[in-house]
Write a structure and sequence with these properties.
Multidrug-efflux Transporter Regulator, Chain: A, Domain 2; Rossmann fold; three-stranded antiparallel beta sheet; 8 strands
Length: 292
């Protein structure tokens, strides 16, 4: 059984932990259990409830009204939401729930249905990336079982690769970007998404993928002279030290421009390097890509 902390619920639902505690006191839909050391934890059912309640509350329903709804009535109200953004959020929440339940058939069907309706590009930008952004915190904190991660990651990876292969850009950039993950890092879904974004803007991309030693990049930089090297750090690999990595990078290829995005871009190293930039949000990444 999956268990979640109140911080997990906050990250996944967007509802502040303080508000969740107030809901627990006033309403009946949340009844957390506690560890022997008196720390709250929540079950899969409570995660689903919070996701649904947060969505209905965001689009106009009062919590006191939601509290009186049955699970089926709540589900129907969510389906009936007419706002386009509400429907996208509903589908992202569905993806989270199917992942937690290991319902891979339904997980893939949501993506396939959206691809048929909206196309691969909108599916990537409106469903896949918001889903990855939402669950990235859980992957970092190991509250998602590796089996759940691998199953959904492989499905999304397949869809992203199809999107990358089929994207055609009406513009052309003379810039070249190398995409890579440092040695020991294997979470490449964010990197594949960047590949898609860059290719859609006509940027030439050299995709090295995961677990790339700095010495290998040195060889490629000497041969191809790219404008930027870009990495997307989702989780902390075992024994990974960002200060050590950046020092080695600057000793080996000191004149290369390195862009770091992803969840770990917020973890600044002790030493600053003039050739390293941090993109701490999707908006900053999009601005960087658009400027190339």
């Amino acid at each position: 059984m999956n268990v979640f902390t109140i911080k997990d619920l906050e990250n996944l639902s967007g509802i502040k932990a303080h508000t969740i505690r107030i809901w627990e006191q006033r309403y009946s839909f949340l009844k957390p259990k506690r560890t022997e050391t008196n720390i709250r934890y929540y079950t899969t059912d409570e995660l689903k409830a919070v996701l649904n309640i947060a969505l209905l509350n965001k689009y106009g329903y009062k919590i006191s009204h939601i509290d009186k709804m049955s699970a089926e009535e709540m589900r129907q109200k969510i389906i009936d939401l007419s706002h386009a953004e509400a429907q996208q959020e509903r589908l992202v929440n569905d993806l989270v729930q199917y992942m937690v339940d290991l319902d891979i058939v339904q997980f893939e069907e949501v993506l396939n249905h959206y691809i048929r309706l909206r196309g691969i590009e909108r599916t990537i930008t409106q469903l896949m990336f918001p889903f990855l952004d939402k669950i990235g915190i859980l992957w970092m904190t190991n509250f998602i079982h590796p089996a759940q991660e691998h199953l959904v990651a492989n499905i999304i990876r397949q869809k992203l690769i199809v999107g990358i292969e089929n994207v055609h850009s009406s513009v052309h950039s003379d810039k070249m970007v190398v995409l890579f993950l440092p040695e020991g890092e294997y979470h490449e879904l964010g990197l594949l998404y960047l590949y898609y974004l860059l290719k859609s803007k006509g940027v030439q991309v050299l995709y090295l993928g995961s677990d790339v030693p700095v010495r290998d990049m040195e060889f490629l930089v000497a041969a191809k002279k790219p404008d930027y090297l870009l990495t997307h750090l989702t989780s902390v690999p075992p024994n990974f030290n960002i200060d050590k990595f950046l020092s080695q990078f600057n000793q080996t290829i000191p004149h290369s421009k390195l862009i770091i995005s992803g969840q770990l871009s917020a973890c600044c190293p002790r030493k600053a390097f003039s050739n390293v930039q941090y993109k701490r949000s999707l908006q900053e990444v999009m601005e960087f890509v658009s400027a190339l």
